[in-house]
Every structure is written in structure tokens, then in C-alpha cells.
Amino acid sequence: MKKIFALVLGLVAMAGVASAQNYMVVDSEKIFKSINDYNNAMTQLDQMAKSYQQQIDAKFEDIEVLYNNYQQQKANLSSTTRAAREQAILDKEAEAVKYQESIFGNDGVMMKKRIELIQPIQERVFKAIEGYAKSNGFDMVLDIASNATLLYYSPAVDRTEAVIKLVK
Predict the structure, then answer these.
(1) What is the residue extent of each domain of the chain?
(2) What whole-number distance in Å separates Cα of residue 46 and Cα of residue 52?
């Protein structure tokens, strides 16, 4: 009986502590989109990605042309020539995939450029959010941007506009 009473008392105490926490809500996507440097960086990244994608598409189109030509001529080729042409097509495809990975992969050119352009802005925004939360006595910050599990929040706890003013 004492254990049950202690457990219930503990749960009530924890609920009281949890409800005493002061929290705020921000929409980080809205904050980022309000910053001109971020919008310019995203535009630059989009333009770079489009240009690189065109180069990659051209490489794969060349491979498709080689493959189609090979298919049309396949019957008239000797087995050694067929093997050589097949290997050449596979080598070109591997080269194109490697190039694509060097551009769009985790360590690729686009990721490095994204880090270079976006990371300083992210740090600035996150520091502003942290500074605002600390100076206004908030214990927790929830980000509502792209959060499918947040079902409801009161606009009274939304501090997005205050953080935007702080960042600018």
C-alpha cells in the first residue's frame, strides 16, 4: 500500500513539475524564409543544382545513345567486340554515377556548398532562438515547421515573430 501511495505521489509530483515548465513555439521555416541571405543562398543552391543536373542528364543521355546503337549493331558484332562495347557502356555508366555522387552525395559539391552558405545562417537563427528563450524564461522550445506529430498549439505560445525581429 505504501508503495502504491508513493508511486501515485511521485507521478503527481512529476506532473506538477512538467506542467510548471515554460515553453514556447516557433516556426523555424518562417524564420528562415524571412531572412534575405537565406533566400539568396537557396536560390543560388537551386541554380547550381539545376546546372549540375543538366550535366548529369547529358551524361546519361550519351550512355543511352551508346546503348541503343549497341543494341542495333549487336547482331553484326563479334563476341569480343560485343564484350568490349558492353564494358565501355558499363564504364561510362559507372563514371556518370560516380560524377553524380561527387555532386549530390553526402560529401559532394552541393552538400559542401549548402553547408558553406546555410550553416552560418542556421547558427545565427538558433542562437537567436536560444537567446530569446533564455532571456524570457522559457525552458523548452518547440519547432512547428514540418512537424507532423504536433497536433495543436496555442498561438499565445508562438514566438516566431519575436525571433524574426531579433534575427533581423
Answers:
(1) 22-167
(2) 10
Q: What are phi and psi of 98, to 5 degrees?
A: -65, -40
Distant-in-sequence contacts of 1-7, Cβ < 8 A, 24+ apart = none
Confidence of residue 2 (pLDDT cuts 50, 70, 90): very low
Q: How far apart are CA 163 and CA 166, in angstroms?
A: 5
The owner of cell 531579433 is 166
Mind spelling out the 3-state secondary structure of 66-93?
Answer: HHHHHHHHHHHCCHHHHHHHHHHHHHHH
Give the DSSP H or E segment for 23. Answer: strand 23-26
Over residues 58-86, the pLDDT tens digits come to 999 999 999 999 999 999 999 999 999 99
Give the type of residue at 31. Answer: I
27-50 pLDDT, tens digit each: 999 999 999 999 999 999 999 999
pTM over 0.85: no
The residue count for the chain: 168
Task: Give the count of beta carbons closer than 10 Å to the beta carbon of residue 53.
Answer: 14
User: For residue 63, what are the CA distances in angstroms to 59, 100, 128?
Assistant: 6, 14, 50
